[in-house]
Amino acid sequence: MKLLRLFGAGFSMSLRRSVAFRINLLFDVILAFTGLGTTIAAVLIVFTRTDAVGGWSKAEFLVLIGTYELITGLRSAFIDPNLSWFPDNGIRNGKLDSYLLQPAPSLFLASLSLSAPLALIECVLGASVLGWGISSASTNPSAGGVLSWLVLMGAALVVTWALSVLLACLAFWAPKLQLDVFYHSAWQLGRYPTDVFARPIRFALTYVFPLALIAAVPSSALLNGAGVAQLTGWLVIAVVAGGLAGVAWRAGLRRYTGATS
Fold first, then answer.
1. Helix-strand-coil split of the chain, %, nearest 5
2. For residues 241 and 186, what is the distance between their CA atoms, to the nearest angstrom?
3. Are 66 and 129 in contact (CB under 8 A)?
């Protein structure tokens, strides 16, 4: 409960700072509409020539895009503001020192204390596209499909956070190493179903760098349902990823000597 109160207080302060610059809201809305509109336009153009891509129909692709935008919006709102600049602000400029002195878990403060509320616009747009895809599907999702989607979305958020923490922890050993460009480029693969990739890439995106969990797996589960074994497997992956993030953070702190030392 303490962490939830801290999270709420941080979000409240970030929201007040964001609304103080209203022109930013306008530009964020325009950019979000432009980016999503470009993606949807490309999908609609492709489906004027075919009925399925990698076994996915147009409605399934829209569900996939909507789910991807939801996860991306949550990541942009709550994870990126903290960890995108961690090597610079956290390690080299010494902001981590202040986190270590506060009476709260340093991993929470470093990864979730700040937020960018305006990024939640992407979630609103993603939910709209998700609803469009569901209404266009030949069958409505079952109660089990909706529940599976919710469970897998939770697992996807944990994996997203864990991957960001693991990449940020590399700064403890290599402060000048910048992997943001690679991560953001790889993240774009999450907007496509893994079925369109060759088998080695599909394996990597599922078990090595599990971006398949970001959107493709929850979207498939929403429309087609998911078995207990599949849900259990992905929950195990989420738990393992979260555990590895915690281990890497503690190992990094043992190596960290402070920005002023």
1. 80, 0, 20
2. 17
3. yes
User: Three-class SS of residue 215?
Assistant: coil
CA angle 86, 156, 165 (to 5 degrees): 20
CB atoms within 10 A of CB 185: 9
**Backbone dihedral region for residue 225 (phi beyond 0: left; psi -120 to 50: alpha; all else: beta):** left
* Block residue for tokens 């050993």: 173
User: Which residues lie closer than 8 Å to 189 by C-beta, 6 or more apart?
Assistant: 197, 205, 211
Residue with tokens 């190992």: 251
Interval 159-209: pLDDT, tens = 999 999 998 888 888 777 766 777 777 888 888 888 888 888 888 887 777
259 Cα distance to chain centroid: 29
Please tell me what DSSP assigns to residue 55.
Answer: T
Of 234, 254, 213, 196, nearest to 52 (Cα)? Answer: 196
Cα–Cα distance, 232 to 219 (Å, whole number)? 17
Burial 32-47 (b: 16+ CB within 10 A, else e): beeebeebbeebeeeb
8 A C-beta contact, residue 93 and residue 236:
no
Predicted TM-score (pTM) of this structure: 0.87
- Cα 68 from chain centroid? 8
Token readout for 37 is: 């509109």
